[in-house]
């Protein structure tokens, strides 16, 4: 609309504030910018909406990683890392991807079978539409045809997921967060990331991290040269 863009410095402040206060939702961060005096002061009364906040994180992944690296280098210059003892462990972080948008071969086959059965049933209704008289209201031929077209569109979508799985060799696909996978976390199964984190013992600062698709921590340590 011709309005000036937000400076990346201000958006980074909001992103870091959310990280430090465990606020992951862009909608929650939008509300904090309206009601929270700390955030209002931090952003100098700027009020970015949730889409702007989400797009900033999505469009600047590489830059945010560089910010983390620069912060780690700064901690090293200030001698905040003891460099004697580190702890490495994995944590599960739930992705934005819902379970219904996560597919594996069995789930896709089940969906396709259901759609084929529904299409077959609707086609039978079309055949019998003019032959069976009943006081009950029956859907018109046009309505049934539209339902069939919608089912065929869903079928094509699921078949494209099957082709992608076959081509990639993967056993799972997530449509919203492509790198997220179904993982067990606190007796629940959620679409998540497995974050391997290295923490220095001196001040409990994170020295390094790695995002993995594997649900367990086996084999995550880098091999010796």
Fold topology:
Elements: H1 8-20, H2 26-35, H3 37-42, H4 50-59, H5 61-77, E1 86-94, E2 102-103, H6 105-128, H7 141-168, E3 173-174, E4 181-185, E5 188-200, E6 206-212
Antiparallel strand pairs: 1-5, 2-3, 4-5, 5-6
Helix pairs in contact: 2-4, 6-7
What does this structure look like?
With 225 residues, the protein is α+β, with helices and mostly antiparallel strands. Among the domains are: 1-59; 105-171. 48% of the residues lie in helices and 17% in strands. It has helices spanning 8-20, 26-35, 37-42, 50-59, 61-77, 105-128, 141-168, and strands at 86-94, 102-103, 173-174, 181-185, 188-200, 206-212. Strands 1, 4, 5 and 6 form a 4-stranded antiparallel sheet that branches. Strands 2-3 form a two-stranded antiparallel ribbon. Helix 2 crosses helix 4. The longest helix has 28 residues, at 141-168.
Q: What would the principal axes of the Cα set say about the shape?
A: flat
- How much of the polypeptide forms β-strand, as a percent range? 15-25%
**Biggest sheet, open or closed, and with what strands and sense?**
4 strands, antiparallel
Going by helix content, strand content and strand pairing, the class is: alpha+beta
Q: H/E element string?
A: HHHHHEEHHEEEE
For the record, give the distance between the C-alpha atoms at the N and C termini, rounded to a whole number.
55 Å
Rg is 25 Å
What average pLDDT do the residues reach?
Answer: 87
pLDDT < 50 runs, ≥5 residues: none
What percent of residues adopt helix (DSSP H or I)?
40-55%
Number of helices: 7
* Counted beta strands: 6
């Amino acid at each position: 609309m011709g309005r000036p863009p937000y400076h990346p410095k201000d958006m980074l402040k909001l992103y870091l504030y959310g990280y430090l206060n465990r606020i992951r939702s862009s909608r929650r961060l939008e509300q904090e910018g309206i009601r929270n005096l700390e955030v209002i002061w931090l952003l100098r009364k700027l009020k970015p909406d949730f889409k702007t906040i989400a797009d900033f994180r999505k469009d600047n992944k590489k830059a945010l990683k560089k910010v983390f690296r620069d912060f780690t280098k700064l901690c090293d210059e200030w001698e905040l890392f003891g460099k004697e003892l580190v702890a490495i462990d994995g944590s599960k972080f739930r992705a934005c991807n819902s379970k219904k948008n996560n597919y594996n071969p069995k789930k896709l086959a089940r969906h396709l079978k259901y759609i084929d059965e529904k299409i077959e049933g609707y086609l039978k209704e079309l055949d019998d539409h003019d032959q069976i008289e009943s006081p009950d209201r029956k859907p018109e031929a046009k309505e049934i045809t539209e339902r069939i077209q919608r089912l065929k569109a869903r079928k094509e979508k699921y078949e494209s997921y099957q082709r992608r799985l076959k081509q990639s060799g993967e056993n799972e696909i997530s449509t919203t967060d492509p790198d997220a996978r179904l993982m067990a976390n606190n007796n629940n199964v959620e679409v998540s990331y497995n974050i391997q984190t290295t923490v220095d013992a001196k001040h409990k600062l994170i020295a390094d991290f790695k995002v993995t698709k594997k649900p367990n921590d086996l084999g995550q340590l880098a091999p010796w040269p």
